[in-house]
UniProtKB/TrEMBL annotation:
This protein's pathway: Energy metabolism; oxidative phosphorylation
The keyword Oxidoreductase is annotated on this UniProt entry: yes
Binding site for heme c 2: M209, C251, C254, H255
Protein's cellular compartments: Cell inner membrane
Quaternary structure and partners: Component of the cbb3-type cytochrome c oxidase.
UniProt binding sites for heme c 1: C166, C169, H170, M296
Protein name listed in UniProt: Cbb3-type cytochrome c oxidase subunit
Pfam families given in the database record: Cytochrome_CBB3 (PF13442), FixP_N (PF14715)
Obligatory cofactor(s): heme c
Cofactor note: Binds 2 heme C groups per subunit.
GO terms, biological process: oxidative phosphorylation; proton transmembrane transport
Keyword Membrane: yes
């Protein structure tokens, strides 16, 4: 933190605390020379003001909060660059990457580092549970994802992992939203086999649908959109679709000449009427016009292997067990 912000925060914080103290002290004094309960000569709407002192319990409580605030600022960080006498911090402030975080976790004393202290505590508390559910007993061999999916306790743990790490994009019910796939159907961009699902979680995915507006022109985009919609049985202008079929040859390089997609690089199937960004004519035209860029982050550096195995099992069973 720069010197300016250190000074600014310190002056603002201490000024507020001492200002409150000065206000309480000023209100505790009798500057009118009146006796307690004497009329002060002020009246509003039939109500007259009497010279009554502040309640003692209220004044004492206010002074206690001021003292508490000053003691807190001495012990804990809060005044700009001052770290407090205890040296507590929410996390390692110098860490800028996952690699640095892991190195810090190995070598540092975490007594006053809240984040790493909680990680260590949770690992001691739940680490054995994750391992027992994900590994073959007394070995370092992971259980097959299909086998884990038969274990109700493992699925409950996987569901919680999903809620913590995946629901922000795929929604709490895993049905996705615009731009984020529904994980409960069988329309898998990169394949829905257990190994493929785990691969997606571990490595992440980067999808890139190029923009064709400048290549096809406005009419060309409408024609290809009509043909793409017709592949899933939608009612479209037959003449536009016929022209779009001719232009679709450039799309076939990714989506296949039959429009059924290609899981090798995540090109969606256009015949199943499942649309990641919306299946209206306008939405499909926008996709062709401007392209789409989607990113699924890699979790291999965030979640341990046992957690990824449990999470993979939970996601796999959403479309393979519950829907059968």
């Amino acid at each position: 933190m720069t010197t300016f912000w250190t000074v600014f925060i310190s002056v603002l914080t201490l000024g507020t605390i001492f200002g409150c103290g000065a206000l309480v002290l000023w209100c505790s004094k009798d500057y009118e020379g009146l006796k307690d309960g004497e009329d002060m000569g002020h009246e509003y709407d039939g109500i007259r003001e009497l010279n009554n002192p502040l309640p003692k319990w209220w004044s004492y409580m206010f002074w206690m909060t001021i003292v508490f605030g000053l003691v807190y600022l001495l012990l804990m960080p809060g005044l700009g660059g001052f770290k407090g006498l205890l040296g507590w911090q929410s996390s390692a402030q110098t860490v800028r990457s996952l690699e640095e975080s892991r190195e810090f976790a190995k070598n540092a004393d975490h007594v006053y580092d809240q984040y790493h202290r909680e990680l260590e505590y949770k690992e001691k508390l739940y680490g054995k549970t994750f391992r027992a559910l994900a590994y073959v007993p007394n070995t370092d061999q992971l259980l097959p994802i299909e086998a884990i999916a038969q274990n109700r306790e493992a699925l409950r743990v996987g569901e919680r992992l999903f809620a913590q790490n995946c629901s922000q994009c795929h929604a709490s019910d895993a049905r996705g939203q615009s731009g984020f796939p529904n994980l409960t159907d069988k329309a898998w961009l990169y394949g829905g086999a257990p190994a493929k699902i785990k691969e997606t979680i571990v490595r992440g995915r980067v999808g890139n649908m190029p923009a064709w507006r400048d290549v096809m022109g406005e009419d060309g985009v409408k024609e290809v959109a009509a043909y793409a919609l017709s592949l899933s049985g939608r009612k479209v202008d037959a003449k536009l679709a016929a022209k779009g079929k001719t232009r679709f040859v450039v799309c076939g390089a990714c989506h296949g000449t039959d429009g059924k997609g290609n899981p090798a690089f995540g090109a969606p199937d256009l015949t199943d009427n499942v649309w990641l960004y919306g299946g209206s004519r306008r939405a499909v035209e926008d996709t062709i016009n401007y392209g789409r860029q989607g990113v699924m982050p890699a979790w291999k550096d965030i979640l341990a292997e046992d957690k990824i195995q449990l999470l993979s099992a939970y996601i796999w069973q959403l479309s393979h067990l519950e829907n059968q």
